[in-house]
Design brief:
0% of the residues lie in helices and 48% in strands. The chain has 126 residues and is mostly beta strands. It has a five-stranded mixed sheet, with no helix packed on it. The chain has a three-stranded antiparallel sheet with strand order 2-6-5, with no helix packed on it.
């Protein structure tokens, strides 16, 4: 599967939701499945020393509530930008293989990737 790349701009303090645009499929490329693990991560301004990551595990979910399953093979990550630095965010959504025939049997793959810009909140004069 080819990864989709998107770019959007937000103001710090707004909620951002990143959604998989294509469902996750099994190794046959057509059967839609849920993987054992969905990973969401991002870095700001290319700072590889600080990577923010979230994990959704099939059957138990994401303890932070950041990643949710929206349908068979479909996931989204929602977070408040005020908790993170401003700048250019490069993100990816990946999945890990499953131990069950009913879930994703592929190796870890990037499913979605992109970048977004978070600008500082405006200030009032006077």
């Amino acid at each position: 599967m080819t990864a989709t790349v998107t770019t959007n701009t937000y103001t710090q303090g707004t909620a951002v939701t990143i959604t998989t645009t294509n469902p996750i499929t099994a190794v046959d490329g057509t059967t839609i499945v849920d993987p054992d693990v969905v990973l969401f991560g991002f870095q700001v301004d290319g700072d590889s020393s600080q990577t923010y990551t979230f994990t959704y595990t099939y059957g138990t979910g994401d303890p932070t509530g950041t990643i949710v399953r929206t349908g068979l093979g479909l996931y989204q990550a929602t977070f408040d930008t005020s908790a993170y630095p401003t700048g250019v965010w490069v993100y990816s959504i990946a999945c890990e293989p499953s131990s069950s025939i009913n879930h994703d049997t592929t190796k870890t793959k990037i499913r979605e990737m992109g970048q977004l810009v978070v600008n500082p909140a405006p200030f009032a004069l006077g």
